[in-house]
Amino acid sequence: MDVVKFAIPEIIFGRGSMKYTALCARRLGAEKVFLVSDPGLEKVGWVDELINILEAHQLEWVYFGDVVSNPRDYQIERGARLYLSERADVVIALGGGSPMDAAKGIAIVASNGGSIHDYEGANRIHRPLPPMVFLPTTAGSGSDISQFAIITDTRRRVKMSIISRTLVPNISIIDPLFLQTKPRELVLSSAIDALSHAIESFVSVIASPFTEMQSLKAIELVAKYLPTAAVSLELDTLEALSTASTAAAMAFSNAGLGAVHALSHAIGGMYDVLHGHVHPVLLPPVMRFNMEACLDKMAQIGRIISGRRRRSKKSTAIEGIETLREMFLSLNMKVRLRDILPDDHNIELLCRMAIQDVCVVTNPRPVTWKDLVKICEEAW
Amino acid sequence: MDVVKFAIPEIIFGRGSMKYTALCARRLGAEKVFLVSDPGLEKVGWVDELINILEAHQLEWVYFGDVVSNPRDYQIERGARLYLSERADVVIALGGGSPMDAAKGIAIVASNGGSIHDYEGANRIHRPLPPMVFLPTTAGSGSDISQFAIITDTRRRVKMSIISRTLVPNISIIDPLFLQTKPRELVLSSAIDALSHAIESFVSVIASPFTEMQSLKAIELVAKYLPTAAVSLELDTLEALSTASTAAAMAFSNAGLGAVHALSHAIGGMYDVLHGHVHPVLLPPVMRFNMEACLDKMAQIGRIISGRRRRSKKSTAIEGIETLREMFLSLNMKVRLRDILPDDHNIELLCRMAIQDVCVVTNPRPVTWKDLVKICEEAW
C-alpha cells in the first residue's frame, strides 16, 4: 500500500449538539464570529436560534446569508470583503453544501487574498485559514468533514473543485434535529449524494482501509434507511442517514471521488441543476462503466445493496446496480439525463469540461471525454 | 443516541512515511523539536535516522531518551525541565506506548506547569499543549491516536490514567517498516493489546457507530493476521496489524475501555508487568463476566473471532472467547494470572485500586471491586 493520508475534523454528533456551537467557537479563540447561512434556514428559524446561542455566550457575530444553491464566485468575494471589514475571527457555517462551501470560499479569500478562482484544483492554498465550525443541516454534502469546496465560476459556467487539507473544518457539529425541518425530497436526494460519495470513494484508486470501512458503512446505512425515509422521517432514521453522510464524507475527503462527480460538477456549472438530482441519473451507468476495473469491490457493493450474492462477482455487481436503479424509480426520482437537462446540445462540451475535473484522477477505470459522452448517451 | 464526540489526529500511514516527519513538524511551526524515544530505538538506529531527517530539513533538536517501560513520574519531570530549558517548540515521539506516553506527560507539565500527578483523571488539562507529531514503532498502544496517557506514580505504585482531548497528537505518522526490527514476541503482544482495545471499546457504554466500525475492523484484522504473524513477519502482515492498531485506537480513544484495562493498569503499577502480557490473562474472564450485559455485541465478536455462528447468541459469544483462549495458548502466551504475578497476596488491594481507574466507568456491566476479585480468582 502506498503512503495514505487520513484527516477529519473533530466531530460532535447527536440530537441537540447545536448547543455546543458557542463553546466550540470560543475554544478556537472566537471573539466575533462570521456566520454563513441562507434564506431558507433564516425562514425556518435556525439562524435565529444559533444567534441566540452565540449571544448567550457573549460572542459578537456578523451574519452573511447571500448564498444560493451552487454558490457563486461573486458571492464569495462579497462575503470575504464583509469578513475583513468586520474583523471577524472564526467562521461558522450553518446549512447544506452551499452555505458550507461558500463559507470555505470566504475563509480562503479572506485569509489568502486574491480571487477564489486562484485556488481551483488541489493544494493551491498556502496560508492558514481562520478556524471553522460547521453545522450541516442536510445529510449528504459532507462539506463539514471534507477538504473539498465547490464554487461556481459564473463567467466560465463551471463548478470549480477546490481541494486542500486546510479546508477540513476544525469542528463539525452534526445535529440530526435539523433534518426534521427539511422536505422529504431533499432528505432523499441528499442521502443519494452520500451514497454516491460512498460508492465513488470505495472504488477510488487511492482508497485505503481507513476510507474503505467508512464507505462500506455508509453504503450499508443508506441501503437500509433510504426506503424507511421514503415512508417516515423518524429521528432514528434521520440519525442513521446523518451517520451515513458523515462516514461517506470521511471516505471521499481522503480517497477522492470519480466520474459521477466530475460529470455532475460540469452539469451543475452549466445548468444550475441541483447536485442531488444528478446522482440517480449517472450513478448506474458510471458503475457499469467502472465495473471491469474493480469487480471485487463492485460485487461487495452489489451484495450490500441487493442483499444477495449471485454465482459470479459480475452478476452480483450487476444485481446491485439494478437494485439501485429500481430503488431510485420507486422513490420517484428522475433517472434519465433528458429529464434533468433542457436538451442534448451541449453533451460534448459538458464531457470535455468534466474530463478536466480533479475527480477524474481517482476514477477506478481510466476515462476519456469520449467515454463520458457514451455514459451520457446511455443515461439519456 | 446521546451526543458523542469523535476526535483523531491527522494520520499519515504507510511504508516509509517516516520521511515526512520534518515537514510535518515544520507545518506545526517547529524550529527546535523535542524528540522523545528510548535506548532500544537508539540501539537499532531509528533515533539516528530520524535525527538525520530533522537535520536535512534544518530543524534544531533536543533528544530525551530517559524512558523505561511503564514510564515514571520523575522521568516526566526531568523531561519537562529539559524541554523548557532548551526552549523547544514541538514534541516528537518515536516509540511504543512508553515513549509516546512519556512525551505526552512532558508536553503537559511543560505547558501547564505543576506536577504530572495534578492531571490524573479526565479533563484536567486547561492550557494548550505544544504541537505533537508521534511515530509509533509498535502496533498496539495507540497512544499516537488516543487522548490517553498512562504514567506510573512511583510513590503510590499506581499507573495514572490521564485523559484529555488535548492529548490527541496533531499528526500521527504510522510507518510499518519500524515493526520489522521488533522481536516477534513484542509484535504479537502488541497486537493482543490492540485486540483488547477493540473489544473493550466495542462493548463500551459510550460506543457510537463511528467507534463501532473501527472496533470491528480491528477485531477482524487481528483475528486474521495474528496467526500469520506467529509464522512470518511479512510486511503485508505488519501493515495489516498497524491498520488494526490504528483503528482500535480511534475506537477506544473516543469510546473508552473497560475492566481489562482498569485491572491491567493496577497490575502494571504495582508489579511493573509488561502491559501486553496482561491481556491474554484477563480478556477471556472479563469477556465472560461482561457477556450478559452485551450479548448481541459479544456474539458479533464471537462470530468474527471463531468464524462460526452457533444456534444461540450466547453459544456464539462463548465460542469466540474459547477460540481466543486457544489462540493465546497456541502462541505460547501465558494465560494464568499466577504466571505473571509473583504471588496472590495483593489481589484485593489490586482490585480496590483498579476500581478507582477511569476505565471502569465505560465497562458494559457495572462492576465492583469484589467482582474484580472473582475475575482474578477465575484467572489465577
Question: Can you give me a brief rundown of this structure?
Answer:
Chains A, B: Residues 189-380 form the Fe-containing alcohol dehydrogenase-like C-terminal domain. Chains A, B: GO terms for molecular function: alcohol dehydrogenase (NAD+) activity; metal ion binding. Two copies of one chain form a homodimer. Chain A has helices at residues 21-27, 39-43, 46-56, 73-85, 97-112, 184-202, 209-231, 235-255, 259-271, 275-290, 295-306, 313-330, 347-354, 369-379; strands at 4-6, 10-13, 32-36, 60-64, 90-95, 121-122, 132-136, 148-153, 158-163, 171-174.
Structure characterization notes:
- The structure is a homodimer of 380-residue chains.
- Chain A has 380 residues and is α/β, with parallel strands linked by helices.
- Chain A folds into two domains: 10-178, 3-Layer(aba) Sandwich (Rossmann fold); 183-379, Up-down Bundle (Dehydroquinate synthase-like, alpha domain).
- Helices cover 51% and strands 12% of the residues of chain A.
- In chain A, the strands form two sheets. Chain A has a six-stranded parallel beta sheet with strand order 2-10-7-5-3-4, with helices on both faces. A three-stranded mixed beta sheet of chain A has the order 6-9-8.
- In chain A, a hairpin with a 4-residue loop joins strand 8 and strand 9 (158-163).
- The mean pLDDT of chain A is 96.
- Strand 2 of chain A pairs antiparallel with strand 1 of chain B.
- Chains A, B: Belongs to the iron-containing alcohol dehydrogenase family.
